Fold this sequence. Notes:
17% of the residues lie in helices and 39% in strands. The chain is rod-shaped, with a radius of gyration of 55 Å. It has 6 domains: 21-95, CATH 2.40.50.140; 107-179, CATH 2.40.50.140; 193-266, CATH 2.40.50.140; 274-346, CATH 2.40.50.140; 357-440, CATH 2.40.50.140; 445-537, CATH 2.40.50.140. Strands 3-2-1-4-5 form a 5-stranded antiparallel beta sheet. Strands 8-7-6-9-10 form a 5-stranded antiparallel beta sheet. Strands 11-12-13-15-14 form a 5-stranded mixed beta barrel. It has 539 residues and is of the alpha+beta class. Residues 491-499 have low confidence and may be disordered.
Amino acid sequence: MQEVDALSEKEGLDMSSMYEETLKGFRAGEIVKGRIIELKPGSAVIDIGYKSEGIISLSEFRDSASLKVGDEVEVLLESKEDEEGRIVLSKEKARYLQSWKDIVEKYKEGDTIQGKIVRKVRGGLIVDIGVEAFLPGSQVSLKPTKNLDHYINQELNFKILKINKARKNVILSYREYLYRQKDEQKTKLLQDLQAGQLKKGVVKNITDFGAFVDLGGVDGLLHIADMKWGRLNHPSEMLAVGDTIEVKILNFDPRTGKISVGLKQKEPSPWENIEEKYPVGSRLKARVVNLVPYGAFVELEEGLEGLVHISEFSWTKRIETPSQLLAIGDMVEVVVLNIDKKEKRISLGIKQIEANPWLEVEKKYSVGAAIEGKIKNITDYGAFIELDEGVDGLIHVSDISWTKRIGHPSEVLKKGQKIEAKVLSVDAQKQKISLGLKQLEPDPWPGIAQKYPVGVDVEGSVVKVTNFGIFMKLDDDLEGLIPASEIDVDAAESEAGRPLADTLEQHFKPGDALKARVIRVNENERKIALSLKQAEEGV
């Protein structure tokens, strides 16, 4: 009996030694391999080769439904014994430590990692990347956003901002990842970009001068002038933010990254073959699209406008402003006068639709013919005589009288007065007719030169006193000039610095009788010069 007890005692010591040896191979906090030896409701019994088994809740297994007895699993040995003498194991903590180990070994700050946003916390979101990482609210999007709920359960890529090994936490940024993606897309797009390419983009912003189009990470400027060949007042008439459009790359500067795009360039320019479509002299119907002080712009087709200059409105009517004849939206018939393809200019005319009445004027009003007409208007330089509707002739002030000195035409002519005149010249191209009143009478100056030879003394009266002399009346319409140098004025009566006219006016008044001597007669200039000095001296 004693031998049996001794044997049992010995076996007990051997078993205890084995357990002690086994115990030496395990340390709390290590990840060990185990095997499922039993599945109970809500838990699994795990044998890791230790003197006791551990029990783990099925909630720690992500695929608990597929577990079966005999499956090998990795678990964390939290403690070698609990209050009941069992080892304490954790599948969830084993997975966390292994994931943390993988993250530390595989990733560094600045790397991209994939994860799933699982919940919202104060100040941001929690992302499952194998371990729970923190995504600050300021790092969620490119633009500030207050609503973070719609990000939950999304699987996204993130940039690792910070890895704290001591605290075993990771801070992520989705915003920085988006920036990186945008820069990569921009770089790739710029590398492949060439003028002439067609690219699809989204209208990002609209301004008064055009629109910015997102071409996929980089913006292109679509100027209002490049939207359509026709007239466009504002980009919003054609585009809206969010529109998807196809544009043509016009210009690209790799150094600055600036891109110019166009819409109208996808279609042929209306200026192509312009001379064949609208040859000079052809008649067209066009719509008035704009009025300016110097004329009217008319649209021949979309994107093709020509100018009707105000001088090309009428052969005969004097048009002061285009609105006298036209209004925006009017359909008018025009004639093509000139095409400058290089400068993209078309000159048009309205009056050319009808025959030029001035061609008939040359035949009707021959030079030398006497005509009758009514004075239509009087100016400083002459009077306009209406000959036919829209056809006026000008009597210049110098052609009113052979002998009378006329300061202004209104001195002898009145508006509305019917008079007779002689045609002096007709210029149909410049649309001018020159008329004369004095030419109705023979030129008296050859007779005047004989009547008033140089050296003869004449009598007359003062007409006007000026600072350069005195005009003296000789006959009804004939005046002569006595220059100041030919008037003897006592120097004592002349005050220093006083105008000579003031001095002369003290001695001479209009109507005063004078006797003077003819010192010069100029038939070409129709002038007579007189002298008081020589008449008084009697030389």
